[in-house]
Amino acid sequence: MAAGYLEILRTRHAARLLTGTLVGRLPNATAALAIVLFVRAEGGTYSLAGALAAVYGVANAVGQPVLGRLVDLCGQPRVQLPGALASAAAAAVFAFAGTGSLPVAYAAVAAAGLCAPPLEGGLRALWPGVLGEGDRVHTAYAMDAVAQEVMFTLGPLLVTLCVSLWSAQAALLVVNAVGVLGALSVVVSAPSRAWRSAPREAHWLGALRSSGLLALLAAFLFVGVAMGSITVASVPYADDHGGDVVYGWLMAAMGLGALLGGTVYGARGWTGEPARRLRALVALLAVCYLPLMLMPDAVAMVLLTVLAGVFLAPAIACAFVLVDRHAPGGTVTEAFSWLVTTFTVGASVGTGLAGPVVEAGGARWGFAVPAVAGGASLLVLAVTGRVLAAPGRGAVVAVGSENDPNRAAEPRFSSGDRA
Questions:
Q1: Which of 134, 338, 412, 416 is least surrounded by CB atoms within 10 angstroms?
Q2: What is the pTM of this model?
Q3: How far is CA 207 from CA 247, 320, 339, in A?
Q4: What is the Cα–Cα distance from 312 to 374, expressed in whole angstroms?
Q5: ∠ Cα 325 286 297 (to 5°)
Q6: How far is CA 127 from CA 11, 14, 134, 135, 402, in A?
Q7: Taking all residues of the chain, what is their mean pLDDT, rounded to a whole number?
Q8: Secondary structure letter of residue 197 according to DSSP
């Protein structure tokens, strides 16, 4: 199983790009927790902490596709590193100014989220140039999805360790400084410096003029809703079955399930149509959410939560292939950034939706929300099946490619067409 991943990591630049991207995204992955802990340490209310964390999330959702388009237009180093420095500087302003002046706090948090560099989309734009086309890129997408689960598990541990050893202010500063180092590692690498986007047609919609990409984003909005609602529904369940420790185990179990599923999925090559495979994966994802409504004892619930996470990383990895297929020429970084934004917005909607549902009907109905959202995602994929199965931009001969710095004329085949 590990052979395919080891082959990818042994490829020149691959391990550095993956590690640098994950480290560079650490401030983004831990922002909500770091902000809440800092506001609490400053004596602020949980309402203020939640509002500031929400402002960061909204600003980040807006900034990712905007900066992604700039990366496609200007190249990675000119956007990624300045974005990381600006985001870290804004976080430092928040850390030193505190919550004494709310306008300053809100502005600093918004700037930190807005300027966070689109490293995730940038990495996926680099994979075909580093690995070549075909199954190796598909394996890298799966490895990428797995690595995200590791980051979202270890990142909060790093924040809490910094808080316990020093302070919440130090945690904010350290995490953002480490993020700048990660971004720097990526942008000074040869693949990042050499990467050029394909020639693009001037259009104000950018990547969003692709109907296939719009269909995919609509489907993953509901996947995000499912993930956000689980985090809320798990709180009242944990309160009745052991408290915060059980809640921590449930969240870790979700990540473990995604880690296991993504590892197995990426360990083999897949044939057939990616759009059809994505429908199957999302269907399994929706079905595996249903047993959560049984709400058994804590040990069984943790096991069910592992099962609920198994098909998440494979579905995300398969979506990466389809994004690559349907992104219009010259918009690949922006397209991947839109997927990140859509998923984030969906998670926020799910969080907001699950709260009233839990208050009205309890945790059991809260766990019904992810199953319904998974079904809605499957419905979108079924209705748009023909659009997603279309060849997209993959079979077009164009001057230059997303990964050809010399812009030599060549047939451009998307990695998705061979997955």
A1: 134
A2: 0.74
A3: 38, 14, 11
A4: 11
A5: 140
A6: 11, 8, 11, 11, 10
A7: 82
A8: P
Q: Quick check: 287 pLDDT over 80?
A: yes
Answer whether 333's CB lies under 8 Å from 68's CB: yes
φ, ψ of residue 304 to 5 degrees: the values are: -65, -35
Are the C-beta atoms of 338 and 217 separated by less than 8 Å?
Answer: yes
pLDDT in tens, 186-240: 999 999 998 887 666 655 576 788 888 899 999 999 998 998 888 778 878 888 8
Instruction: Please state, in angstroms and as integers, the Cα–Cα distance from residue 308 to each residue in 80, 304, 313, 364, 373, following that order.
Output: 34, 6, 11, 15, 13
Task: Report the distance separating Cα 261 and Cα 290, nearest Å.
Answer: 18
Averaged pLDDT for residues 166-177: 91
Instruction: For residue 368, report the phi and psi dihedrals to the nearest 5 degrees.
Output: -75, -25
Tokens coding 136? 């190796």
Tokens representing 154?
A: 């270890």
Which pLDDT belongs to residue 182? 94
Write the Ramachandran bin of 203: left for phi over 0, alpha for psi from -120 to 50, otherwise beta.
beta
Alpha-carbon dihedral of residues 62, 112, 29, 288, nearest 10 degrees? -30
DSSP state of 206: G
Q: Is 325 helix (H, G, I), strand (E, B) or coil?
A: helix
Instruction: Please work out, in degrees rounded to the nearest 5, the angle formed at the alpha carbon of residue 252 by the alpha carbons of 44 and 320.
Output: 100
How many residues belong to the chain? 419
pLDDT of residue 398: 35
Query: Which residue bears the tokens 């709260």?
Result: 355
Rounded to an integer, what distance in angstroms lies between the CA atom of residue 278 and that of residue 317? 9
Residue with tokens 């990624």: 80
Q: Give the DSSP letter of residue 396.
A: E
Query: Dihedral sign, CA of 243, 249, 254, 257?
Result: negative
CA atoms within 13 A on the CB side of 175: 36
The DSSP element (H or E) to which 403 belongs, if any, is: none
